[in-house]
Amino acid sequence: MPSLFSISELSQEYGTTPRTLRFWESEGLLAPRREGQRRLYSQRDRTRVKLILRGQRLGFTLAEIAEIVGLYDAADGESAQLSLLLDKIALRRDELLAKRADIDASLADLEGVAESCRARLSALEPKQRKKRRA
Amino acid sequence: MPSLFSISELSQEYGTTPRTLRFWESEGLLAPRREGQRRLYSQRDRTRVKLILRGQRLGFTLAEIAEIVGLYDAADGESAQLSLLLDKIALRRDELLAKRADIDASLADLEGVAESCRARLSALEPKQRKKRRA
DNA sequence: ATTGACGTTTACGTTAACGTAAACTAATTC
DNA sequence: GAATTAGTTTACGTTAACGTAAACGTCAAT
């Protein structure tokens, strides 16, 4: 693992495109080194890409993700800064917990539908012992 | 609770706008009754609105949400339809589980940052016993 | 009868997050 | 040295999910 990556390497590795990585950079989410014109992405850039993708999967906007990944860098300030950081982290944590509650509610709903679905199925074909899921 | 609602009542109740409800209807997510021109929303429409909002909070697109809320209505088909429905439900369930795993990973990351943050804080002010969070 | 309050349709505007294309550079490779 | 390959900037296009505005209907109250 060479610890430095071109834009096409990094984009392919995570299933994005060079355009996307440049856009994220223009939005302040990445800041790769330069060798002349070319961008050189480090391991640190890679983990940020992972964080960004995870944030997107969770439905956060790029602006929110910028704030969140910013939290990781701000862990070296003065006392007041650190307290503010802890507050922001607490807010994000509450957001995530709320989102997880939504997920659990959705899972329960879907399980309810699945249950009544299985009930109807076994009512429809009480004799036929076909392929059935667990 | 009158069991029938105007568009402004319903939109205010859930913090959206009439425009949004009409748009969702045009996208096939809602189908309220009509009294002449006016839309009349039922309890069933209300629960769908709740489902839609929850789907949005989880980062699903309207098209995906349309598919998901469609699952709730399709629970009355033939055997083959029901099996397909169960498959779709399983897919959505896996999606939600993956999303919850992302959330848990994010929570763990944030907790790590918070921890090192608290460590720095107590290192910075070892004497001062100020206000501190749990 | 007109003024609101509430509703309607139709249509164009807006923002986020890129896609796509053009025109250029810089380093191999044939 | 011409072509290929990978990268660059700049700029315009696109899609989703509405916002906003225009022009209109309807019904109760002034």
Low-confidence stretches of chain A: none
Q: Oligomeric state of the chains?
A: homodimer
Strand composition percent of chain A = 5-15%
Number of helices of chain A: 5
Largest interface, counted with CB-CB under 8 A?
A: A-B, 46 and 46 residues
Query: SSE string of chain A, helix = H, strand = E?
Result: EHHEEHHH
Q: Major β-sheet of chain A, in short?
A: 3 strands, antiparallel
Strand tally of chain A: 3
Explain this structure.
The structure is a homodimer of 134-residue chains. Chain A is mostly helical. Helix content of chain A is 66%, strand content 7%. Chain A contains 5 helices and 3 strands. Chain A has a 3-stranded antiparallel beta sheet. In chain A, a hairpin with a 2-residue loop joins strand 2 and strand 3. In chain A, helix 3 packs across helix 4. Chain A is flat, with a radius of gyration of 23 Å. Chain A starts with a strand and ends in a 10-residue tail after the last helix. The mean pLDDT of chain A is 91. At the A-B interface, helix 3 and helix 5 of A face helix 3 and helix 5 of B. The structure holds a DNA duplex (30 and 30 nucleotides).
